[in-house]
Amino acid sequence: LAAHGTKLTPDSCFSGYDDMAVLQDGVKPEAGSSLPGTVSWASAETPSPHWVEVEFAQPQTVKEVTVYWANYSHDPHTSRFFEVQIPEGDEWKTVYGSPDEGEKPATCTTAEFPPVR
């Protein structure tokens, strides 16, 4: 993403995890990687929902988003619920939402949806 001029804007960052390059560098975290902010991004620890906005330099057609979860001590830190949303007028439209039972623990999750531009 970075090579194509993509801009990332988070709602917040946990101290030491503010390097947004790790969200678009194509590097997949290895099990046991634990250097703060070197392999993953983390939001601030607040009860509100957290998000990262991805702004492409040019319009793109997207049909899936793969998230590689932080994997410390061989324990993937999978978010229980997440959504993929796209702008639609002045609102956001959800094109992927986690199942009601939540995401299963995994090293990565691919959210698939009908192609959107």
Give a structural overview:
There is one protein chain. The protein has strands at 7-10, 52-55, 62-68, 71-72, 75-76, 83-88, 91-97, 108-116. By secondary structure, it is mainly β. It starts with 6 loop residues before the first strand and ends with a strand. The mean pLDDT is 86.
Radius of gyration: 14 Å
Shape label:
globular
| Tally of individual helices | 0
The percentage of residues in β strands lies in 35-45%
Outline of the structure:
The protein is mainly β and 117 residues long. Helix content is 0%, strand content 35%.
Any descriptors?
0% helix, mainly beta, two-stranded antiparallel ribbon, globular, 117 residues
Write the layout of secondary structure elements.
Elements: E1 7-10, E2 52-55, E3 62-68, E4 71-72, E5 75-76, E6 83-88, E7 91-97, E8 108-116
Antiparallel strand pairs: 1-2, 3-8, 4-5, 6-7
